[in-house]
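Incident review: delayed structure delivery

Summary: a single-chain prediction request sat in the queue longer than the usual turnaround. Root cause was a stuck worker, restarted by the on-call engineer. No data loss occurred. The affected request and its eventual output are reproduced below so the record is complete for anyone auditing the incident later.

Affected input:
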Amino acid sequence: MLTFCDGEEPQVINALKSKDCIFSTIIPEIDEPWYLKFNNSAIYSDKTEDVFTQMFWKLGMKSFDDFITKLEILPRKSLEKSKEVLRKRECIKAQIEGIRISLNNGLAKMN
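Output delivered after worker restart:
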């Protein structure tokens, strides 16, 4: 989902496609267009009756609907691995804290 995009291909596209970007690995899994543009200019306009404001609003809503549709068909990924990583991280934090306390106690005895 790219915001404040008018007309042309957003400049960030090349950065997202680069091999250094984590997203470049999932882009091939997504149907074209794999990004959706949102023009937020209608949000900041006071002229609710303005034809252009209404047009931008409708375009934004269409992009949002397309985004939700794409979300619904994306392949599902399990979060079990993420939960496991978070549990391990908490264990490591506890171990580090225990080591820190032991070191401080040992240093205090040396003084």
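Verification: The chain has a mean pLDDT of 78.
Action items: add queue-age alerting; document worker restart procedure.
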